[in-house]
């Protein structure tokens, strides 16, 4: 089960880094109007990262608790 967890975690981290880099470059190169749109996208990005990595944390804690039973 730990093997599957690590694969999904690595995929999640990879996607988060790539999307973060793309949004960062867009923000740097954007004009004033586009920066407002990118800021909205960054808010969604941060919330998505919290949800994804929070779910991985919950999964890991659950597997540790169930493994000790």
Average pLDDT, rounded to a whole number, is 90
Envelope shape: elongated
Can you count the beta strands?
0
Low-confidence stretches: none
Structure commentary:
- The protein has 69 residues and is mainly alpha-helical.
- The chain has one domain.
- Helices cover 93% and strands 0% of the residues.
- Helix 1 runs antiparallel to helix 2.
- The chain starts with a helix and ends with a helix.
In short:
The chain has one domain (2-67). It contains 2 helices and no strands. The protein is mostly helical.
Question: Topology, pairings included?
Answer:
Elements (H helix, E strand, L loop, with lengths): L1 H28 L2 H36 L2
Helix pairs in contact: 1-2
List the defining traits of the structure above:
mainly alpha; 69 residues; single chain
């Amino acid at each position: 089960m730990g093997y599957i967890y690590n694969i999904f975690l690595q995929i999640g981290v990879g996607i988060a880094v790539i999307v973060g880099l793309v949004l960062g470059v867009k923000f740097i190169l954007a004009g004033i109007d586009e920066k407002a749109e990118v800021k909205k996208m960054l808010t969604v990005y941060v919330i998505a990262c919290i949800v994804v990595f929070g779910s991985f944390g919950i999964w890991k804690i659950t597997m540790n608790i169930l493994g000790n039973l």
